C-alpha cells in the first residue's frame, strides 16, 4: 500500500509540510510554476535548499507583493523575538516562516500591531478559492482545513464560525501554503497518511489577543484526540495551520510502520535549534494490515438440545454478532459436545456475553482478541429475464469477486418454477 509517513518531531506548519512534500514530487520545479500561475494576486512562492544541523532540506517561502510577514515570540522572561511565520492567528511560530500579509480584504482591517496586517473570514476564503483553477477535491480539502481552523477559533473566542476573522491564515500567503499541501497530496496520491505524535513545543506565544500558553487555544482544540507532547523547546512548534492539515489528512498517529521507504523529503523552518528544525516526510510501501480488531467469545456446551443451540445462534446474530457458529468437540468424561463461538465488535463484547449466559447453559465464557483481514463489500443489481437480483461485490488485496444473493435467486426460481441452476446460468450469461 502506498503510504506517506510524516515525522513531526519539531512540530508542523503549513510551509514545512509544503516543503517536505515538494521534495517528494517528481517535478518540483514544474509544480511551483503551476502553483505560481494559479492566480493568487501578488503571490510568489519560492523553494530553496536549507541546511540544518548539517542536513540539507527545502525551505518554502511565500511573498505577497514582494514582502514577508514578521511577528514576535515571547520567552519565559517576557522578552520578544522577531521572526517570520506561516501562522494563522497572530500566534507566533518558532520556525520563522517568512510570510508577508500584504493582501487586503476590504472591511476586515482591524489595525493590530502589524501595521499592514488584514483579516479575512470564511466567505473571503471561498471567494479566493473560486477563482483558482484547482481540482474539485483539492478545493474541498482546502475548505475542509479552513473549516477545522474556523471551528477551533469559534470555540476559543465564543463567536459563530462565519464571524471568525482568520488573521494571518486568511491572507494570501497562508492560502498558498494550504493550497500547496492539498494539491501536493492530491498529486502524490498516497493510499494512507500516517503521522508521528506531534511535538507542540512549550512556553508562551504572543497573539492578537495577548500572551497565551503553548499550544495556543485553537491549536489545542484542533489537536484533540491526537497524540502530542511538549518537551524542552520553548516556542510554538505546531501552528493551527499545521494542526488542521494533519487532522484533515492523517489516517492515524503513532510510531513509524514497517515500511519500504522509497523517498524522503525534509521541509525546514528558519530558526535554529539544537535539534534539526525540520519536518520529514517518507513515502513508500507498507503491507496491507488487518483492517480491524474483533472479539471472539466461545463456550463449551454438553447439555443443550440442538433446538436450544440454534435459537441461541439466531439471537446472537440478530443482536449484531459478526458471525456465530458451532464446532463439534469431545469433552470430559468422553462426552460429545458443541463449542459455540461468537465474533463481535469490541464494543459489543459485554452484550454478547450477556446473551450467551441468557440463552445457553454455559457457566463460563472465553475471550480472545483477533485482528481480521477483510475485503471491501458493496452491493450491485443485475438483471435477469425474470427481474433484478442483488449481487455482492467483494474487492481488495488484489482480488475482486461477485456473488449473486441466494435469497434473490431462490425467490426467482420458485416464482418461475425453475431450478436454482437455471436462474444462476441466466445471470452468468448476462
UniProtKB/TrEMBL annotation:
The keyword NAD does not apply. Gene3D superfamilies: Transcriptional regulatory protein pf0864 domain like. Keywords: Lyase, Nickel. Residues 79-120 are annotated as: Disordered. GO terms for molecular function: lyase activity; nickel cation binding. Residues 87-109 have a biased composition (Basic and acidic residues). It holds the Pfam family Ni_insertion. It catalyses: Ni(II)-pyridinium-3,5-bisthiocarboxylate mononucleotide = pyridinium-3,5-bisthiocarboxylate mononucleotide + Ni(2+). InterPro entries: Ni_insertion. Residues 110-120 have a biased composition (Basic residues). GO terms for biological process: protein maturation. Its EC number is 4.99.1.12. Involved in the biosynthesis of a nickel-pincer cofactor ((SCS)Ni(II) pincer complex). Binds Ni(2+), and functions in nickel delivery to pyridinium-3,5-bisthiocarboxylic acid mononucleotide (P2TMN), to form the mature cofactor. Is thus probably required for the activation of nickel-pincer cofactor-dependent enzymes. Belongs to the LarC family. This is Pyridinium-3,5-bisthiocarboxylic acid mononucleotide nickel insertion protein. It comes from Candidatus Acutalibacter pullistercoris.
Amino acid at each position: 500500500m502506498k503510504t506517506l509517513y510524516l515525522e513531526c518531531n519539531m512540530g508542523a506548519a503549513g510551509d514545512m509540510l509544503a516543503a517536505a512534500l515538494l521534495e517528494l514530487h517528481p517535478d518540483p520545479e514544474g509544480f511551483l510554476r503551476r502553483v505560481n500561475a494559479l492566480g493568487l494576486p501578488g503571490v510568489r512562492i519560492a523553494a530553496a535548499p536549507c541546511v540544518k544541523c548539517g542536513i540539507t532540506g527545502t525551505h518554502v517561502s511565500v511573498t505577497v507583493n514582494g514582502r514577508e510577514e514578521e511577528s514576535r515570540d515571547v520567552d519565559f522572561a517576557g522578552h520578544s523575538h522577531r521572526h517570520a511565520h506561516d501562522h494563522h492567528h497572530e500566534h507566533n511560530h518558532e520556525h520563522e516562516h517568512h510570510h508577508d500579509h500584504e493582501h487586503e480584504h476590504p472591511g476586515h482591517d482591524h489595525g493590530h500591531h502589524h501595521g499592514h496586517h488584514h483579516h479575512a473570514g470564511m466567505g473571503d476564503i471561498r471567494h479566493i478559492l473560486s477563482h483558482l483553477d484547482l481540482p474539485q477535491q483539492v478545493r474541498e480539502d482546502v475548505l475542509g482545513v479552513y473549516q477545522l481552523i474556523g471551528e477551533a477559533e469559534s470555540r476559543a473566542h465564543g463567536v459563530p464560525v462565519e464571524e471568525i476573522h482568520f488573521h494571518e491564515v486568511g491572507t494570501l500567503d497562508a492560502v498558498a501554503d494550504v493550497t500547496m499541501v492539498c494539491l501536493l497530496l492530491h498529486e502524490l496520491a498516497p493510499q494512507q497518511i500516517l503521522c508521528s505524535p506531534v511535538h507542540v513545543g512549550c512556553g508562551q506565544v504572543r497573539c492578537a489577543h495577548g500572551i497565551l500558553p503553548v499550544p495556543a487555544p485553537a491549536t489545542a482544540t484542533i489537536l484533540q484526540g491526537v497524540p502530542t507532547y511538549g518537551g524542552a523547546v520553548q516556542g510554538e512548534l505546531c501552528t493551527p495551520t499545521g494542526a488542521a492539515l494533519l487532522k484533515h489528512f492523517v489516517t492515524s498517529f503513532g510510531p513509524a510502520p514497517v515500511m519500504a521507504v522509497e523517498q524522503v523529503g525534509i521541509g525546514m523552518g528558519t530558526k535554529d535549534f539544537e535539534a534539526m528544525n525540520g519536518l520529514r516526510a517518507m513515502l513508500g510501501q507498507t503491507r496491507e494490515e488487518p483492517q480491524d480488531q474483533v472479539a471472539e467469545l466461545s463456550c463449551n456446551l454438553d447439555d443443550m438440545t440442538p433446538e436450544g443451540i440454534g435459537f441461541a445462534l439466531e439471537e446472537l446474530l440478530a443482536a449484531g454478532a459478526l458471525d456465530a457458529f458451532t464446532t463439534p468437540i469431545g469433552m470430559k468424561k468422553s462426552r460429545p459436545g458443541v463449542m459455540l463461538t461468537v465474533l463481535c465488535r469490541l464494543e459489543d463484547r459485554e452484550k454478547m456475553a450477556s446473551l450467551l449466559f441468557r440463552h445457553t447453559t454455559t457457566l463460563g465464557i472465553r475471550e480472545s482478541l483477533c485482528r481480521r483481514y477483510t475485503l471491501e463489500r458493496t452491493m450491485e443489481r443485475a438483471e435477469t429475464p425474470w427481474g433484478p437480483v442483488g449481487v455482492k461485490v467483494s474487492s481488495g488485496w488484489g482480488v475482486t469477486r461477485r456473488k449473486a444473493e441466494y435469497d434473490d435467486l431462490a425467490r426467482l426460481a420458485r416464482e418461475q418454477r425453475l431450478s436454482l441452476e437455471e436462474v444462476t446460468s441466466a445471470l452468468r450469461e448476462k
